[in-house]
Each structure stands twice: as C-alpha cells, then as structure tokens.
Amino acid sequence: MSLTGKTAVELAGLIAAGEVSAVEVAQAHLDRIAAVDQRVHAFLHVDTDGALAAAAAVDARRAAGEELGPLAGVPVAVKDVLATKGVPTTCASKILEGWRPPYDATVVQRLRDAGLVILGKTNMDEFAMGSSTEYSAYGPTYNPWDLTRIPGGSGGGSAASLVAYEAPLAIGTDTGGSIRQPGAVTGTVGAKPTYGGTSRYGLVAFSSSLDTPGPCARTVLDAALLHQVIAGHDPRDSTSIPAPVPPVVQAARQGATGDLAGLRIGLVREFAGEGAEPGVLASVREAVEALVKLGAEVVEVSCPHFTYALPAYYLIAPSECSSNLARFDGVRYGLRVGDDGSRALEEVMSLTREAGFGPEVKRRIIIGTYALSSGYYDAYYGQAQKVRTLITRDFTAAFEQVDVLVAPTTPFVAFPIGSRTSDPYQMYLADLYTIPSNLYGGPAISVPCGLSEGLPVGLQVMAPTLADDRMYRVAAALESAVPALTPPDL
After folding, report:
1. What homologous superfamily does CATH list for 3-257?
2. Euclidean distance between CA atoms 417 and 420, whole angstroms
3. What is d(CA 381, CA 312) in angstroms, rounded to the nearest whole number?
4. Which residues are tagged catalytic?
5. Residue 341: its pLDDT value, please?
6. SS3 category, 137
7. If we measure between CA atoms, which residue out of 95, 93, 89 comes closest to residue 351?
8. What is the pTM of this model?
C-alpha cells in the first residue's frame, strides 16, 4: 500500500520509527492532490511550501531527540472556515476572496503545536451553509465514490479529501450535521464533539450557539487521536468548557476489542423510517444487530420533540447568521464593490453584499433577519428556542434510560449533483437526523455501516454532553464488526 493509503496511526508509526520521513509523507500526499484533485476539487488552496516546511521541522525536531506527539508529521486538511495565518481563508465565498488572516484559529494552532502538517484548505458550502458543497462560490466538490454525486456538506471538501486519499486526516465544523453528513455519504468517520469541547476562536461564525469544530478521518481511532489534539479549554472562547478532555483515545481502543457487554443503546421511535431510503434503513438495522452481537442491549425510546428539530434549527441558525454576517460590509476587509467616491457608504455595503454573497447565504440572512424583526421575534426565534429546550429535555430523559442513541446519519445516500439545488427543503432534509444533537449540544459521530446502491451509509451514535468517549467506544466497536468500505479507484 502506498503512503497515501495508510491510516494516520500507521503513518505516525512509520515516521516515529524512522522508516519514512515526515517530508516524504507530506510530498506523497501533495503528489496525490496534484494527481486527482482536478476531478475531486476537495481543496480551495494547497499550501505546498508551508506543508513541506512544517514536515521538515518535524523531522529536525525528531532528529534532535525531542519527544513529539502521537500524530507528529501526519498531514491534515483544514476546512476553509478556520482562520489560518498567512493562508487564504475564504469560507468558499467571494466576499472573502484572497483574505489572509493575521492569526491562527485555536484549532489550527493546536494542530501546529502537535506537529501535524497542514496541507491546505478544503472546499465547503459558502459560510458552511449547505448540505452538498454545491453552494461554494468556487464550484462543487465531487464524491470520489461517484464523481457525479455530492460529497455531503457543508464540509464536503474535508470528507472527499479523505476518501480520495489526498489526506489521512481533516478538520471540519458541525453546525447542523456538516461533519457527520459528509462522513456518512463518503464512507468516512466524522465526529461532532460536545459543544464547547473544541474552541470556536478563529472559526468564522455561522451560528454561534451551534458551530463546533471536529475531526474527520478514515478510522475511529484516527478521529479520536485528532479529537484529543484539538479539544480542551480555550480562555479566548467564552463558550469553551473548562473541563478535561474526555478519554476519547482510550475509549476508541476499548471499543475496538468488540466488547459492549452491559451497554444500553436507544433507538429513537420518532426516527423510525422517517424519510429514510429503504437501503439506508436496511444497513442501519444490520449495524444495530451487529452491536447486539457484541453484547449491547437495544431499547426503544421516545423523543417526541425531535420531529420539530428541523424547523427550529432553520429559525435559530439563520437568525444567528443574520447577526454574524453583518460584519461583512465591504469596509474593513474582504470584497468592496462600488467605492468610486460617488456613492454613500450604505450603497457600497449593499453592492458589496449583493456581489459577494451567494444565493443560499442570502436566503438564510433574509430568513434570519425576518425572524428577528420587530413583531416577529417572539413568534419565530423565541418559539424556536423553546423547542430547543424541549429537545434538550428529550435527550436528558432518554439518557436516563440508555447510554447512547443511534440512528441513520442521513436519510439517503449521496444524491446526484444538481438534483436538489432548486428545492431548498429537500436539501435541508439531509440534516434531519443530525440537527437534534446540535440543538442539544451533545457529541455525535457518524461511522460507516454498509452500502446501499453501491454507495456508503453511515450510522450515527449520539451521547450525553461531555460523554464523547462513550460515542467513540460504540463507534469503534461497530467498526470492528462490519466490513471496511473500499472506494473505487479514481
């Protein structure tokens, strides 16, 4: 197997043993990107010089006898919504085209501190608003399983880079499913940590009460190791939790032994078959049966307010986006249109936003601004927040009966590019099963569980807040019990 086909754990072992250098590993992945990314379009920017310099620094530190972290020298791709010093950070939007931040996001800084090698920035739906990576201002990303289909969204570039063997690890962000849903439809692992478990400092905000950076990988253990690197309290983020990182790596290793004796798994009654394709449901049923064979007990639980999660989310998230995106005004940074000296500042702002924002971003800003407007705030945003409280209570009650909840990650396999862009509601349904965990704030992970129509299906494992280790244990156990998915050659 070539270096690009190996897991992060395998690569780290080879580098630590001196069998291969970090520079050789980085170069192999840069060569792979050069060979296939014209067809996949996972990357918006490839930082060749920066990656090779970072890899050389790791080799030099190792040669000097320094003790390095478990992922030192391993390449990683970063979703283009995280500020990366000196590297274009566009959020896949024309309004930030060419912007190079003067600082690193905390997550990016922690990657650097741990010796990971940043390959570049991955494509996404503009400002993380979408479920297919078709709303990027720089063109869609294509699913390596079938290049006519979507790789999920909003972080489709990160997921596609993994399955195309362009990177062994990637960073995504999850606001309503943007890590888990791409993981499901590309046959990779995507984890949303507990909200506040990973820092939002330097993450360009979409919905501040929901946005959560997290790991993307090809195996559960790789994801847990990356999670451990990026997680932990950050005083620069007021929503960061001042608590120890759960023992996610230990849990992943424990789960890989295949022992789930005594674990209680909840099936959400309200999710039973709702909107899901038959092939997806069949794969999920087989996955649950595999967990039972490993010793888990399955219990049906009711979460009656989950059915209201989708409409509540599409009031809360657009409302917060309407507030957060007001900073893009054409005055301080980024695109500026119409500033010829003859126009008032308000007109320049309007022209800049008209040219700089894409249609989906404009749609959500309009929805959010309306929901927050005088006379409608209580009827829309206020009511949605009450529903959020009821969903949190559903989770709390469910976790008094079971250890984790499981469900399909997304109702359908990867759909053809262009097939849903004219129907926003059908696009939003991709996040039907993922949104409740975002509204609650608890951790959730998608792990491959089979194929339907020759395309990957993901099982989602949801856990209580700060019980991230529990979801990794179950995910690793399932991974050990089901056949690995092998994507077609590009």
Report:
1. Amidase signature (AS) domain (3.90.1300.10)
2. 8
3. 8
4. 79, 154, 178
5. 85
6. coil
7. 95
8. 0.98
